[in-house]
Amino acid sequence: MGETSYCPKKFAVIGAGPVGGIVAAFLAKGGYDVTLCDIVPELLAPALEPGILLEGVDSFQARVTRTTTRVDDLLEDPPDVVFIAVKATALPLIASALEGFAGEGRYVVSWQNGIDTELELAQVLGPQAVLRGVVNFGCVPLSPGHIRLAFHHRPHYLQELDPQAKEAALGISRVLTDCGLDTQHTDQIADMVWRKSVMNACMNPMCAVTGMTMVEIINDPITFNLVDALIKEGIAVARANEFSLGSGYYPYAINYIKNAGNHKPSMLQDVEAKRRTEVDYINGKIVEYGKQAGIPTPYNSMIRGLVKALEPK
Ligand SMILES: NC(=O)C1=CN([C@@H]2O[C@H](COP(=O)(O)OP(=O)(O)OC[C@H]3O[C@@H](n4cnc5c(N)ncnc54)[C@H](OP(=O)(O)O)[C@@H]3O)[C@@H](O)[C@H]2O)C=CC1
Ligand SMILES: CC(C)(CO)C(=O)C(=O)O
Prior knowledge:
Function: Catalyzes the NADPH-dependent reduction of ketopantoate into pantoic acid.
Bound molecules: NADPH dihydro-nicotinamide-adenine-dinucleotide phosphate, ketopantoate
EC number: 1.1.1.169
Structural class: alpha/beta
Shape: globular
InterPro entries: 6-PGluconate_DH-like_C_sf, 6PGD_dom2, ApbA, KPA_reductase, KPR-Related, KPR_N, NAD(P)-bd_dom_sf
Largest sheet: 8 strands, mixed
Domain Ketopantoate reductase C-terminal: 189-311
Protein name: 2-dehydropantoate 2-reductase
């Protein structure tokens, strides 16, 4: 990665779930100033002492600099970069809490799953302040401050929304890479988001509805047929909207799911914890983009409805 003029030193991570915990731990291990923010205080205490403990394909322990339960606190002594690692459903609230954060040299990264999450942030904060990431690891929380990384398919991807923020995207990618969270700057983030989301659109809701793990839904011939139909629908919608998934996408997606083994994706973790899910940002978006392009999406509509039926009312 070439030299960049943007050298952020101070970070905040909103969301102390497994994904936020992992970013915070890698940045803290790299010696950066990290504030971890979550509305659940029990998730924060161990991040300070004894530190966030990662196990699995990456294993180490690292202490963050400080914690807070209020996003507003981040505005008092603003960090250079805020990573958003909450579920997409929390975005409207977080975007409005961060209003006023944007300024010279300050950026917000959507480090999440889901289609168009960056646009929700940009609507409030302005496109020049927002970057989009694509996260390529799988993880589960074991207990507060203790996270298992089931797999880590480096690299992750990052892009600015506004060309003026390219140096920032390069600088943040360099910091993450130096810390061990290899991140590549791309100018095709929308394609990367769709590559990840079409896979999320089959494995996440299929596991959420059935309670099965990723390898189980591939190995069972009945659920495999549904996975197959969901991927093919997603591919058709992506193509009709001119997102490129790359050649050999179908076998890539099937292998990715199979190789994850007995891993529970985040949507199944949400259903088990009786939380709202991100299905509207994944299958719901495929349905929306399908409608726009005249592509029928009966499988995505059906599975979205089934997941919604499992959400708390
Ligand atoms: N788990 C995984 O393997 C992967 C997940 N992802 C994606 O990463 C994102 C984060 O996932 P994950 O870590 O599993 O999410 P979690 O829901 O486990 O963690 C998010 C945390 O943020 C908290 N939170 C919600 N709203 C706010 C708020 N306004 N201010 C501060 N904290 C808040 C949540 O609290 P509460 O629970 O009370 O709402 C929760 O503790 C999602 O988009 C997910 O799809 C991407 C790759 C892999
Ligand atoms: C890739 C996978 C399945 C990893 O857990 C994921 O993105 C999720 O759980 O939402």
